[in-house]
Known about the structure:
CATH topology of the largest domain: FAD/NAD(P)-binding domain
Number of helices: 4
Strand order of the largest sheet: 7-8-9-6-10
Largest sheet: 5 strands, antiparallel
Oligomer: single chain
Amino acid sequence: xxxxxxxxxxxxxxxxxxxxxxxxxxxxxxxxxxxxxxxxxxxxxxxxxxxxxxxxxxxxxxxxxxxxxxxxxxxxxxxxxxxxxxxxxxxxxxxxxxxxxxxxxxxxxxxxxxxxxxxxxxxxxxxxxxxxxxxxxxxxxxxxxxxxxxxxxxxxxxxxxxxxxxxxxxxxxxxxxxxxxxxxxxxxxxxxxxxxxxxxxxxxxxxxxxxxxxxxxxxxxxxxxxxxxxxxx
Length: 233
């Protein structure tokens, strides 16, 4: 059944991810000490004789194999789930870190809709959690802009919400929460359905390495990529 509604004691600001990233990029770009490098890919980590980080090598994405050295007083890996730092450390002579992996076999499919709620609607987000294996299907809908809603369908334990039009609607109709199908039926799609299966929780145990290079920092998902709703602590 429905959970009892109650004040959570703090304000919640919902926003579409592209809008959030655009604002963050604009603020970082405005910093006079920040320079962006476009059209290159980081290929390796540079360490000195003391095994401290002193920079990286980058290569143009146009395919030309002309590496360039970019030196730094501090090297920060903030590349998230796509991090290649374990491989870079191994190439520099360090042991590979142990990696703890928890795979809930979760799949998401999401889509944006323009949707104008009924006058009596007093909520801006609706959620049905999964509880695999008993309730492996769920969803979430949230207003992320003026009349702009993001609807996400969830499948756990091997269930997968489809990425096609009819399958997306049919999957939503199987959920106990009627809000998702209502938004699909009364809203206007803004773009295609997007599906992702890149949901594995992964923790690189850098804390167990016998030596960690100085002047090197890893942040966020590049260390531990997890879904906070899984309650890993």
